[in-house]
Amino acid sequence: MFYIACHSSQEKNVELSEIAEKQNIPKHFLSKILQSLVKQKLLVSMKGPTGGFKLSRPADSIHIVDVVEAIDGLDIFRQCGIEYKECDADDPCPIHEEYHKMREEVYHLFKTRTLETMAEDLKNGKPLSDIIKAPQKGVKEK
Fold first, then answer.
1. How far is CA 135 from CA 97, 118, 127, 140, in A?
2. Would you say 132 and 118 are in contact if contact means Cβ atoms under 8 Å apart?
3. Residues 45-94: tens digit of each pLDDT
4. Which of the listed CATH numbers 3.30.160.100, 1.10.10.10, 3.30.70.380, 1.10.3720.10 matches domain 1-56?
5. Would you tell me how many other CB atoms lie within 10 Å of the CB of residue 61?
6. Rounded to 5 degrees, what are φ and ψ at 9?
7. CATH 1.10.10.10 region(s) of the chain?
8. Is residue 113 within 8 Å of residue 64, measured between CB atoms?
9. E strand or H helix at 43
10. Please, is 122 exposed, middle or buried when counting C-beta atoms within 10 Å of its C-beta (0-12, 13-18, 19+)?
């Protein structure tokens, strides 16, 4: 999604083979993921000589959590970190409190960041470690 956000436009689609090559992802595997994102209406797929993929809506309206939900669902933000079946506030696993806090921070990060902000940061050479830091409370996201 980041690659497509950085390299597609209303007039230009990005070809499957280009993404696979540049991102070093097996073409068949990538094809399944991209088709899933098309079904979830995050991407548009076009056939023909100018075919390929592009975002279905502006990058500033697609949050990272939308992509996670389309591919894996949101259960990751509700599940126990060690898959303890009965884990909840009343019957916590050994890492419940710490994992719950981290899970909430990651969810907040993914809910507030868009493909546009991530793509712009990557284009501007911002290190990935800086991009994925959770925004500080009280500091407004750009």
1. 21, 13, 15, 8
2. no
3. 999 888 899 999 999 999 999 999 999 999 989 899 898 888 888 999 99
4. 1.10.10.10
5. 12
6. -155, 180
7. 1-56
8. yes
9. strand 43-46
10. middle
